[in-house]
Amino acid sequence: DVKVTQSSRYLVKRTGEKVFLECVQDMDHENMFWYRQDPGLGLRLIYFSYDVKMKEKGDIPEGYSVSREKKERFSLILESASTNQTSMYLCASSLGIGTGTNIQYFGAGTRLSVL
Amino acid sequence: GENVEQHPSTLSVQEGDSAVIKCTYSDSASNYFPWYKQELGKRPQLIIDIRSNVGEKKDQRIAVTLNKTAKHFSLHITETQPEDSAVYFCAASISGGSNYKLTFGKGTLLTVNP
After folding, report:
1. Contact A80, A18 (CB under 8 A)
2. B95 with A100: Cβ contact below 8 A
């Protein structure tokens, strides 16, 4: 059974703080994703990674960066948190290119509040 | 890039009725269409998917249909039950190529009233 674990369920941070959201998967998946979920806006892709140290911007990368030093871990970084980054953040992983499947497995989410 | 439109945004049905959620996509190269269900406070989970070489797929009370010509696909839930209440997301992707991203619709909140 695929397990995608996000380190925190709830986080409260101050404006201007540097924030790290961590995600770990245990199924040797090649691809990892960070989404932001807001009511009425669905799941919007922030960044994704298709290999260690490789990353690509998604649809809303502004204000975020990512790090993937190891295959199983993908971190989302808010360099200077702002109130408009208050949201639910979801991490996901999928097997890899050429495997014939794009099925994504999601973590439980981190609800971030920036005050 | 790909754009996925999903309708309706909310849907309320009586227990036992059927529910239909529709999605359209813009990129004719998309060939993989999954549906995810997200119960309140839970993570999204895949419930059914379809590839472009198939027109319909069924799994017990849920089915998905695909019309490649019109670029739309639909989720059908029959004999709805209260536990079907959730947000449902459709998505589109190009499977097997270099593009492994999923583009999601904005979601449909389904409420099944007992």
Report:
1. yes
2. yes
Please answer whether residues A112 and A13 qualify as being in contact, where contact means their C-beta atoms are separated by less than 8 angstroms. yes
pLDDT greater than 80 at residue B96: no
**Residue A48 to residue A74: CA distance in whole angstroms:** 9
What is the H or E stretch that residue A30 is in? none
Of the candidates A108, A77, A111, the one whose C-alpha atom is nearest the C-alpha of residue A91 is A108
Chain B hits for A94, Cβ within 8 Å? 100
Strand pairing class (A64-70; A54-57)? unpaired
Strands (E), A53-103: 54-57, 64-70, 73-78, 87-94
CA distance A9 to chain B (A): 11
Pair A15, A77: CB distance under 8 Å = no
More confident residue, A102 or A64: A64
